[in-house]
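Slide 14.
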Amino acid sequence: MPDRLTWVAEEVPQGPPLNVAQMYHRLGEAIRERREAQPDFDLAVKRHCLLDAMQRSSDRGTRVLVS
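Slide 15: predicted structure.
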């Protein structure tokens, strides 16, 4: 990941701990700046729909529509 996209200390372990730390950092900034945090719940729903469609496609061995 480029340094310009890393907002937490180097000591944070790679993988899920880094991802969570990055999100908490961005959430804290949004709260302090009184703005909307991104990604938001709506984006999370869209990602879950995409993942569900991918799983259904894999299970069926066919294309499925993403809703």
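Speaker note: The helical segments are 16-32, 41-60.
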